[in-house]
Specification:
This protein is an alpha/beta fold and 374 residues long.
Length: 374
């Protein structure tokens, strides 16, 4: 076994422990643990400043944030989503009795294909959820044009895209709103958490009320809400990691460049690259494995796992092949050729603050050796 300690995809990035523990200690002194406390408010203000948007509503997690945003936008009937995404994107609408309609992806970016979206529109369609996958922005302008043409509401799942720019603007201000994830595995984590960012003050206020059961004041419920509140202990982690986000970015950038160098000459291994004219968080090291490589994608993952390199098949096999969607929409598979092809080829490799450049060099050498097994 090459690595004594496992190298994981998505191992939590943790920056200043002492600063975090100080915030937690202060929280305990106040005995204000949840219910829109001062740390949550501070985290929201810091996020809004960083993202360049006027409104950010912190949530307990990104799935609840997606659900509340979809409800606040009055989605109904059918909503178009990619299948090539984490299953929560589809669950967030299906959970509310809305039908997710799966569109195909652009094989270059792995994000929604606007032409496929256009073909999916029916009289029942009320909206589109684009996903900024791997930190690559979805085709924002093209999707907005399609939605404007058909009177649809557009929002974005930005779980992968914190700190990413599109056209020089940070992701967070596109569409009607954008949803971030601060789960432990994400670039910026708050242990567990999420947020909705928007330029729409009326929408933000609606979302803020829905996050707290729909209460407007102590005894007046004005929406069918839920409990989506972020706790103070999670906000504390988010505050500290955001203040030190450049540490995380620097580690990811160095590792990414090491992968660029180490994988450059391995036949059948194509590293997913990012637009050098935009900012990225480099949180996802994505490779496509094709027939020129010596073994299959699944054999590569198994061989890496035996060496304690815990790579992952993302997003295998595609949301449309998971329950309940494969049972509800068995015919949709033939409409998603690029989703199926990419899902069968992608491997995500370890990075983050716990992975060092010499680890990356050894991973790349290991991949080259595995490819020569046949």
């Amino acid at each position: 076994m090459i690595f004594t300690n496992p190298l994981h995809v998505g191992r939590p990035n943790i920056t200043d422990r002492e600063a975090y523990l100080k915030l937690v200690s202060d929280m305990l002194e106040r005995r204000w643990l949840t219910n829109d406390g001062p740390l949550v408010k501070r985290f929201e203000e810091n996020l809004a400043k960083y993202l360049g948007v006027p409104h950010v509503v912190a949530m307990c997690n990104a799935t609840i944030a997606l659900e509340i945003a979809a409800r606040a936008l009055n989605f109904e009937g059918e909503v178009i989503v990619p299948s090539y995404t984490f299953v929560a994107t589809a669950h967030a609408v299906h959970w509310q009795g809305i039908t997710p309609v799966f569109a195909d992806i652009d094989p270059r970016t792995h994000c929604l294909d606007p032409d496929s979206v256009r073909r999916c529109i029916t009289p029942k369609t009320s909206g589109v959820i684009g996903v900024h996958l791997w930190g690559t922005p979805a085709p924002v302008e093209e999707l907005q044009a399609v939605c404007d043409e058909h009177g649809l509401r557009l929002m974005f799942d930005a779980a992968h895209a914190f700190g990413v720019t599109h056209g020089g603007r940070r992701i967070g201000g596109f569409g009607r709103c954008e949803v971030f994830s601060f789960h432990a595995t994400k670039f910026l984590n708050s242990i567990e958490g999420g947020a909705v960012a928007t330029h729409d003050g009326e929408l933000a206020e609606k979302i803020r009320l829905m996050r707290n059961f729909g209460f407007q004041g102590f005894d007046n419920v004005v929406y069918a809400g839920t409990n989506g509140k972020m706790t103070e202990v999670c906000a504390a982690m988010g505050i500290v990691n955001l203040e030190n986000v450049d540490q995380i970015l620097d580690a990811n950038r160095v590792n990414y460049q090491a992968y660029v160098n180490g994988l450059a000459n391995i036949p059948g291994i194509k590293l997913y690259t990012f637009n050098s004219n935009e900012q990225n968080n480099f949180q996802y090291i994505v490779v496509e494995v094709d027939d020129r490589f010596g073994v299959s994608r699944d054999e590569l993952v198994a061989a890496l796992t035996r060496e304690n390199v815990l790579a992952r098949k993302y997003f295998w096999p595609g949301t449309h092949k998971m329950e309940p969607y494969r049972r509800l929409f068995p015919w949709v598979d033939r409409l998603l050729p690029e989703t199926n092809r990419i899902a069968g080829r992608v491997v995500v490799l370890p990075t983050g603050m716990q992975v060092k450049p010499d680890d990356v060099e050894r991973i790349c050498a290991l991949i080259a050796d595995i490819g020569k097994m046949r």
